[in-house]
Amino acid sequence: MNSNTTNSRHPQRHSRRPPRGRSHGGPKTHASRPAASQSPALEPTPCDTEPVSFASLNLDPRLLEGIRDLGFSDTRPVQSAVIPLALAGHDLIACAQTGTGKTVAFVVPMVQWLLTTPRALVDGEAAAVQSRVLVLAPTRELAVQIEDEIHGLSYHTPITSAAVYGGVEMGMQERALRAGVDIIVATPGRLIDHMRQQNADLSAIQLLVLDEADRMMDMGFWPDVRRIISAMAAVRQTLLFSATMPDDVVRFALEIVRDAKYVQVGQRSAPAKAITHRAAVMPAGKKIDWLIDHLRKPEGPVLIFSRTKIGADRLARRLSAAGVRCIALHADRTMDQRRQAVEGFRGGKYTVLVATDIAARGLDIDGIHTVINYEMPDSPDAYVHRVGRTGRADEVGQALTLVAPEERSALALLEKSVGVRLEWDERHD
Q: What sign results for the dihedral spanned by CA atoms 233, 83, 182, 336?
């Protein structure tokens, strides 16, 4: 991180210069529409997904320098499809498999827009310093990772950003919000807290991004998301990104976009094709012994999903007692504990991470060899997001589900719903 960014770990630099240049298309006026009148059917917009050089996209030289610093030269399919449409000012609903580069697909046009779009004029003068871009994400980990990506891509620009999430003191976040950082990356709950204390002025937001949009539009987040959107001006561009896009989510999405382009890269609500899917059938009481034996010689980093926080802690303790280098990650851990768990797993201190579904979204760690569902996910979409932690960036991945005999039929239905072919191992029946 550098002085262009602010989160719980870094001070905020307040010196700024107004961006100059021309706009790549104006934002649109959004009107609220009743969901019931909308059909969830979406017709994909024809898009060219062939890789192109970032240098061919007519981007600001400072942004291109950040792109080069990160080692990117050509776009990936979702970036090829999304970036031109976003730069043209269109609202977007984008669905692409996990690990395909969606974050860069919205950060690049976001930074380009800030660099080339002057602030609005009020009585002939530039408006007061206010945030102009808001990115909403469902988890703290994802908010931090998005802000880190923004930091890298905007490193050579005057653009400022702040990650706003719970589990840490509000003071530094408050100062960043009051200073009017260009980009706010936030979890809804903590942003609502700042809004209640009048720390966050969203009236000048002109570009809204919802990452993991399906999660942001379930009934747990949706009231807060709608309240946040109501605090914005009616004129904005809205970009929605997700790996899964159920029909009920589409209905909600249509309430907050205007004449949106629908971009679908790969199969809708499906895992990456580079993942091999297996199921090991065994009595529930035998799972822990099988797992300990399996993890004695892991082929690479292993991410294990447990259904509950208590279950994740219990499983991590059992594995540790058996000599497995592992740690647990769930929402009851402090932000510092969660950071240490992720960084320890990423750095190789731990070979196994035992997590709840908090890690199914926003955990971007290269080289996860295997994802193990110690307990079955509760929905096809949860399966897609869980296994999407492996097989990222076209790497080969393994997904293994431990299933009790009485759960076989449920897993077979999930297999059909997701559209994958499971390799069944019934030696443990």
A: positive
DSSP bridge pairs for 210: 136, 240
**177: its two tokens:** 């919000």
Claim: this prediction has a pTM higher than 0.85: no
Q: What class does CATH assign to 5-265?
A: alpha beta
| DSSP secondary structure of 233-264 | -SEEEEEEEES---HHHHHHHHHH-SSPEEEE
Strands 28-29 and 235-242: antiparallel
Domain boundaries, given as residue ranges, for the chain: 5-265, 275-425
Query: Is pLDDT of 263 > 80?
Result: yes
Same fold, 5-265 and 275-425: yes
Following CA atoms 194, 196, 201, 204 in sequence, which dihedral angle do they give, to the nearest 10 degrees? 110
Residue 372, C-beta contacts closer than 8 angstroms, at least 6 positions apart: 291, 302, 303, 304, 305, 400, 401, 402
pLDDT tens digits, one per residue of 117-158: 887 655 555 556 799 999 999 988 899 999 999 999 999 999
pLDDT, residue 13, reads 33
Domain 275-425 listed as CATH 2.60.40.150 = no
